[in-house]
Amino acid sequence: MLSTLFxxxxxxxxxxxxxxxxxxxxxxxxxxxxxGSNLGARLGVLVVLAGFFGxxxxxxxxxxTYGIGLKGPEPSWKPAEPITIIRDAKSLVGAEVLxxxxxxxxxPTETAANVASQLExxxxxxxxxxDPQRGQAVAASDAILQVKAEEFAAGEYLSIAVYDRGGERYxxxxxxxxxxxxxxxxxxxxxxIAPVVPQRTEPGRAPARPVxxxxxxxxxxxxxxxxxAKRRPAILITFGSAIIFFILCWLLHRxxxxxxxxxxxxxxxxxx
Length: 272
Fold this sequence. Notes:
This protein is of the alpha+beta class. It folds into 2 domains: 2-71 and 231-267, no CATH class; 76-226, no CATH class. The protein is 49% helix and 14% strand. The strands form 2 sheets. Strands 1, 2, 3, 4, 7 and 8 form a 6-stranded antiparallel sheet that branches. The chain has a two-stranded antiparallel ribbon with strand order 5-6. It has helices at residues 2-7, 10-39, 41-66, 91-94, 108-121, 132-148, 232-267; strands at residues 76-79, 85-86, 125-126, 157-166, 169-170, 183-184, 187-195, 219-226.
């Protein structure tokens, strides 16, 4: 408990709390003072809260539409099942990457060429080096190899090729009319890496150009695309604020009806 308290500092924890409290007191409190002095304390609370949650509903809808504001997890590549790091070509079928087995060549380089040909024949698309999606997949595979699996260190391998498959959206009429395509098929990426020959580094000299070790087999990192939940906070804010807003509007409407009945009852004379 004490360690948690000591970990709290002025920047940014306490400062953020103070800023939010001041904003709430000044903006919402100032508005309530003006409205409450004209409509009364109880009615002023209902009016101010209705205006606040109506504004939150509108703001949440804008965040939801444009993908800005409070965001959830961004799309990213995650390790795929059942095997993420495939260490030989024969395991590609067991990892559900390929349907047909690959013929082993006389050298690891020839086997890798057979794998590349089989991948393209089964619908895997080879991404170009200029494609930004290739860089995202390589970065994700680096994190898996170096951080999670700790199989390689930086500079001990090269990312040779990146293959992509799946991810189609549906239902849609054609490529231009896809505004109702809310569903996606699973999308996979396969990053081919090759170990490099260990080289000696000398102080004061530029590192040597990495050379692929042709005696070692190529590895493959199999990943699946996690679409994330970028707009989930905005959706929850929009619907939550809308529910509270309409409840407050119903309470205000109910109050007006009761007030109208009371006023009309006072004006009508009582019968003897």
